[in-house]
Design a protein that fits this description.
Elements: H1 2-9, H2 16-42, H3 48-73, H4 90-111, H5 117-123, H6 128-140, H7 146-169, H8 176-199, H9 204-217, H10 219-228, H11 241-279, H12 281-294, H13 300-317
Helix pairs in contact: 2-11, 2-12, 3-4, 3-9, 3-11, 4-8, 4-9, 5-12, 5-13, 6-8, 7-8, 7-13, 9-10, 12-13
């Protein structure tokens, strides 16, 4: 009887498969929601650089203490860690922090103030495999297989259908093309970060902490000082506190911390290939979310571009086999979340 009671009282643990599926659902939902919420915020009270500031504040509240604990628990020396907070040295911390932190966030959030969420769906997560492959060929001398080349070609055609139309409208005085270029630049920025992470075999969680540490000691105090002296325009002081708190929690804790951990767990169980196939749902889900929640029209060129990008992502990874069981050891993630 005592044995039965102990079994009933013992907490049930999720199986590795259940953890992997839950991590995949959380990752896809946060990535898709990031695009819809960021675009909705562009129509609200806050400006792009305000959003970046809140993203770094929210992430810092969680990851700075985590970094402090990690450095001390692993007894990292000053030559390895920076400021006793980042698990990497200053040079590497500054590199990933500039490219994957400040650069990506400023470009991405600024894009939402010019272009609709459907464009971001195609040009941010959708174009990432293409931009990452091109950067890897340049910096790492990677080879592109014929199957992968076809997939990347489909992604390029999808981007052209979306961005090309906006560029043509630029002659009519439209500004959507500015957002498209910003989204493409943000994707390229994240591609460089991904390749740097791969080249240096960076751990996903440690790299995210390093990015947050760098932004916390550079962007956050500089932006706060500029606000204090009235040197830049901001809506932080006039925006509703509820909106400010929500953006700090979602953009910082949700998009950076939670999706970073869930994406790592997802990769550990499903492997990088099957995970890429699942995240191919993000462009379509975020575009549909923009239609239902923001009332954005889904024009024919956007639908075709979205389809080409999604098929291109799937085609590029279909020939590669992924491990059927969880990996015994954590692996290094070369392309951490977008929204990131």
């Amino acid at each position: 009887m005592s044995t039965l009671n102990s079994l009933h009282s013992a907490p049930r643990q999720l199986s590795p498969k259940a953890v992997g599926i839950l991590a995949a659902v959380v990752t896809i939902l946060i990535w898709s929601s990031f695009i819809v919420i960021a675009r909705a915020s562009a129509k609200g009270s806050l400006l792009p650089l305000d959003m970046v500031f809140l993203r770094f504040i929210g992430a810092g509240l969680v990851l700075l203490p985590w970094g402090w604990w990690l450095v001390r628990s692993q007894k990292l020396s000053r030559s390895i860690s920076w400021l006793g907070l980042s698990p990497y040295a200053f040079k590497l911390t500054a590199l990933v922090g500039t490219i994957g932190g400040v650069g990506y966030a400023m470009l991405a959030y600024s894009g939402f103030f010019f272009a609709p969420a459907a464009h971001a769906s195609v040009l941010l997560p959708g174009t990432l495999p293409l931009s990452t492959a091109l950067v890897a060929v340049w910096l790492l001398k990677d080879r592109i297989t014929p199957s992968r080349a076809v997939g990347l070609g489909l992604i390029f055609c999808g981007d052209l259908l979306v961005g090309g139309t906006s560029l043509l409208k630029a002659f009519d005085g439209g500004e959507t093309w500015k957002g498209d270029l910003l989204f493409l630049s943000a994707s390229t920025c994240w591609a460089f970060y991904s390749v740097i992470a791969r080249k240096n075999a960076l751990d996903a969680v440690k790299a995210t902490i390093a990015i947050t540490v760098f932004t916390a000691v550079t962007y956050v105090p500089v932006y706060a000082a500029l606000l204090a002296f009235g040197a830049i325009k901001s809506h932080l002081a006039t925006a509703p506190w509820g909106e400010v708190a929500f953006q700090a929690v979602f953009q910082g804790v949700g998009s950076v911390v939670i999706s970073g951990i869930s994406f790592t767990k997802m990769i550990q169980y499903f492997g990088p290939v099957r995970s890429t196939m699942m995240t191919a749902l993000v462009p379509g889900l975020s575009a549909l979310g923009a239609v239902f929640f923001l009332g954005e029209p889904l024009h024919t060129n956007l639908m075709l571009g979205l389809a080409l990008v999604t098929v291109g992502i799937l085609f590029g990874v279909r020939a590669v086999k992924s491990p059927a069981k969880p990996l015994s050891k954590p692996i290094t993630i070369s392309s951490v979340e977008v929204g990131k």
